[in-house]
Amino acid sequence: MDVDEFWQLVRRARDAAGSAADRAVEAGVPESTAEALVAELTRLPLPEIVAFDRVLGRVCERADTWDLCAARWIIEYGFLSDDGFAEFRAGLVGLGRDAFERAVADPDSLAAHPAVRGVSDGAGRDRWIGDERLLFAAARAYEQVTGDADAFWAAVASAGDEPPTRTGRPAGERWDLRDRAEWRRRPPNLDALFAFGRHDQASTRQPPRSGRHDAG
After folding, report:
1. Using an 8 Å Cβ cutoff, are 90 and 178 in contact?
2. Which residues contact 151 (CB under 8 A, 6 or more apart)?
3. Residue ranges under compositional bias (Basic and acidic residues) (predicted)?
4. CA nearest neighbour of 65 among 160, 163, 167, 138
5. Residue 16 DSSP SS3
6. In terms of C-beta density within 10 A (0-12 exposed, 13-18 middle, 19 or more buried), how is residue 106 classed?
7. What pLDDT, on a 0 to 100 scale, did the predictor assign at position 176?
8. pLDDT for 84-142, tens place per residue?
9. Which of 3, 10, 14, 142 has the smallest number of CB atoms closer than 10 Å to its CB?
10. Contact at 8 Å (CB) between 122 and 19?
């Protein structure tokens, strides 16, 4: 499976999800794009399901940057973790190829996306971009086809692949996520969008000082 075939599957899933494809993920509400993607994947031969997961990992790696770490920090309540950032990058994939490419080139472009605006507008509601179900869509599809919860991971190991949750050191210039002046300079539109409400709550939290996502 090449990257164009990968994105075609994502597009079909988004088409099946309809208007829900551009909404924020919300607690208690099924992630329509992820569910549609699982359905698409179950129609593929098993090796192609594994291949989809392989390409997902490579695509998500392109979004492993400090500036997108900052975008996630601002959008999703001021928390950073390896698992959470992996889910965030998968969520960016779920927004479609055009939105993903714009976010990689300019993370501040996310401020214009309706899903991100939905997070901003959802005061008091648990909304986010990160999508765990999409991150593990291939594993879920493989299990649905085989009836074996472990078969997918055995196939991934046999192929010598890395799961899409694999993380390295984020690319790009590292900067202090606690510095509000940097927020205003680097992602000014995101900073303005989340300037009130949960953004301010997040700014009072201390980012982790150990691990790959420490802030400075």
Report:
1. no
2. 142, 143
3. 171-181
4. 167
5. helix
6. middle
7. 72
8. 899 999 999 999 999 999 999 999 999 999 999 988 887 556 888 988 999 999 999 99
9. 3
10. no
